[in-house]
Amino acid sequence: MVKPMKTLALTLSFIVVGAASAQAACYADYKAKRDDPLRLHYGVAEISSPCDQPDAAADELRPRLGSDGWKLLAIVSLFGDEGLEKRRDSAGDYFLRY
């Protein structure tokens, strides 16, 4: 027979592990530009911000893009793992680059 304290500890450990794995990855697809000469690109980036906060995603992505001279124009959408592969071809070289 399992003692109540051991059962409680085991249950709590499963809850903690489950909560950690429940935080799914979040991705943003975006548009960016460079000037002189004008160049545009569409890309996909993994973000750590919650998937329901486009402004936070933009704040996170701006410095990454800026480090290579790109300026973020827009966050197109935020999505999870389910939307990742269908954007791979469209993003090309900018798929998970930033």
UniProtKB/TrEMBL annotation:
Its domain of life? Bacteria
Question: Which source organism does the UniProt entry give?
Answer: Limimaricola soesokkakensis
* Signal peptide (from-to): 1-24
Q: Which UniProt keywords apply?
A: Signal
Q: What is this protein called?
A: DUF4177 domain-containing protein
